[in-house]
Write a structure and sequence with these properties.
Length: about 170
């Protein structure tokens, strides 16, 4: 019975840590970024602003270049004296979730002030749900991946004690 209580307590701790890290990610890393048209063309600048590897930054730039030719998915107006001020207003609306249109879910958002308008690009880098197992010479167990969070639970061979771990993937190559 004590072993079951141990497992339940560790599971609750893992879930709490998972939720805490996910909230921290949304608060500190998953932000809206204002970038100039020139900076969006540089993989180094995009990688730095979005906290992604340069290979992903190049893919993001390619997708932005492809979508520039298309008609916007949604449009709305804001009152501003310049597009730079309008970009700041749009960024604030996105960050505070007060934007008057429905946005698609995304991990990163880029706001680009143009000559007469402000472009908003939503970048979705989410991973799908994953379930798997692991085995080493010391332990074996299972893991669950939701987006970028891994929760692992296993049994250590020699001592027969529960092994619990949580990992958070900041980026992938």
């Amino acid at each position: 019975m004590a072993r079951i209580i141990e497992y339940v307590v560790l599971l609750i701790v893992c879930v709490g840590v998972t939720i805490g890290v996910h909230l921290a990610y949304d608060t500190f890393i998953n932000k809206t970024h204002i970038m100039t048209s020139a900076k969006v063309k540089s993989a180094v600048d995009v990688a730095k602003a979005l906290n992604v590897p340069q290979t992903q930054a190049k893919q993001i730039i390619e997708r932005i270049d492809q979508t520039v030719q298309k008609k916007p998915a949604q449009e709305y107006s804001v009152q501003a004296t310049s597009t730079i001020q309008a970009a700041a207003i749009v960024k604030k609306q996105i960050d505070t979730k007060t934007i008057p249109i429905k946005l698609s879910p995304a991990d990163k958002t880029i706001v680009i002030p143009q000559a007469t308008k402000v472009d908003v690009y939503r970048v979705n880098m989410q991973r799908t749900l994953g379930i798997g197992a692991y085995a080493t010479n010391l332990s074996a167990g299972a893991f669950i991946r939701v987006k970028r969070m891994y929760v692992m639970v296993g049994d250590e061979y020699r001592t027969r004690k529960l092994e619990v771990g949580v990992a958070y993937e900041l980026w992938s190559h």
